[in-house]
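Case study 2.
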Amino acid sequence: MSTATQGTPPLLPDTLCYLNGEYAPLRDAKVSVLDRGFIFGDGVYEVLPAYGGKLFRFEQHMARLDRSLAELRIRNPMAREGWLAIARRLVASLQETKGFAHQLIYIQVTRGVAMRDHVMPPDLAPTVFVMAGEMKLATDAQRERGVACVTADDFRWQKAHIKSTSLLGAVFSRQISADAGATETVMFRNGFLSEAAASNVWMVKDGAVLGPPKDHLVLEGIRFGLIEDICREQGLRFELRRISRAEVLAADELLLSSATKEVLPITTLDGTPVGHGAQRGRPGPVYARLYAGYQQAVATQSI
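Prediction:
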């Protein structure tokens, strides 16, 4: 049976990618079936946005890659200059061949190839894969009306702070919202806000921006530091702490953040409009200020 009849989404087979020191079309990139990334999901990944060919907050993304690799005891196979050169080459190639205005660069590093054994083999050569694709940002309609989300218990593992390629928990979480026709699944662990399937979640109450603490239960999105910076510039109080489900349901505003969503308002949660009074079910004023600050950061922090 052909892949088309199985419903496989089309790839960009002629898109240039990087694999273990070589550049080649994506269709020609191959890894061993004994790669621990394939066998165990034993690897990490990072996703860098590029606006108009310029990488946004590159250093922060690289710092998170360093943290994830260190947690898995995988040596970083490349210096910052090497990662930067690869990303820029792939972005330039994608602009030239596809003409995409904005791009996403996907980096994956696995422990490498070894016979199947749960124990981490020492001194393997990591497998390094990098590809680029189009970054599709939120639509004007989504920004004007906000998006619908649903809630679920956070059933993922206890090391959510690692940006691991073992993403089955996130896949199931995101499918919950897809099945409901919603944009994201907002998750709670033991009654407290953690994050969404592929986004961080923020609550606005009385003009303050609140998020969950940076610990092993939450992936510290690159936008954690960015939103804190924007709040400081905008004169908004910013606080990270445990946030109960009851507080989330009573929020003035709820927001998602990620590389592709940037900052995006949640206006409906489990079918109930978010917010109060005339602002109920509509993007709020704090969202507008954060989004404006985000666009200013894109203009000044891309390289």
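The radius of gyration is 20 Å.
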